[in-house]
Amino acid sequence: MEKKPMSVARAVLTFAASGTVVLVLIGVVGIVVMQRVGRAEAIRQAKNITSVTAKAVIEPHLTNGILSGDATSVQTLDTIDLIVDPIVRVKIWAPDGTIVYSDTPELIGQRFSLGTEELAVLRSNAVEADVSDLSAPENRYERNFGRLLEVYLPVQTPNGQPLLFEAYLLYDSVTASARQLWLAFLPVLALALVGLAILQIPLAYRLAGRVRAGQLDRERLLQRAI
Asked: Would you say 62 and 52 are in contact if contact means Cβ atoms under 8 Å apart?
C-alpha cells in the first residue's frame, strides 16, 4: 500500500516540536554557562573588595611592630572598621604561620600551618580565593557564619616584611551577587530563543510547502508517464 505523503501542517508541527526540544536544550546549557560566568564574576568582585581593603586600608596602617605583637601596632589596626558586609573576619599571617592580627583577639599570637597555596601567594602578588575549610582549627571562630569564601593576598610592613592578609566573606553574598548577574542576562537569552522559535515556524512552513509542491509535481509527472 502506498504511503500517504505527510501534510504541510503535520510537517511543520513535527519540525517545530523537534526545534523546540533543541531550543530548550540550548536554553538549559545557556543558563548553566551564565551561572558559571556569574559565579566567576562574583568571585572576581570579592577579590577586588579584598584587594582594595588590603592595599588601601590595611597596608598603610601596618607597622613593623606588628610582627612582635606590639600592642600599639595591634590597636592601630583595631581602630579601622574592617568588618563591612560581606567581610565577616580578617586575619594577617606571618610567613611562619603565626596570626599577627585578627579582629578576633583570641587568634592573635596563635600559630598554624600555612598551606602550599597560601605560601605561594606570599611569594607573589597574586590574589586567590577558596571556600573556607571550617573544620580547620584556625577557622573555629568562623563556624557560626556558615559557608565562607576566603580571599588572601600579600601585604608588606614598612620595612618590606611580607605578610598574608586574609578576609572571610559570606558565601551567600557571593552567590547572591552571581545570581543577580546571570538573572540580568536571562531575559535576553529567553527573548533570543523565543524569537528564534517564532522565526523558524514560517520558514519551516515555506520549506514544507515547497517540498509538498515538489512531491505533487513528481506524482503528476509519474501519472502522465504511466
From this structure: no
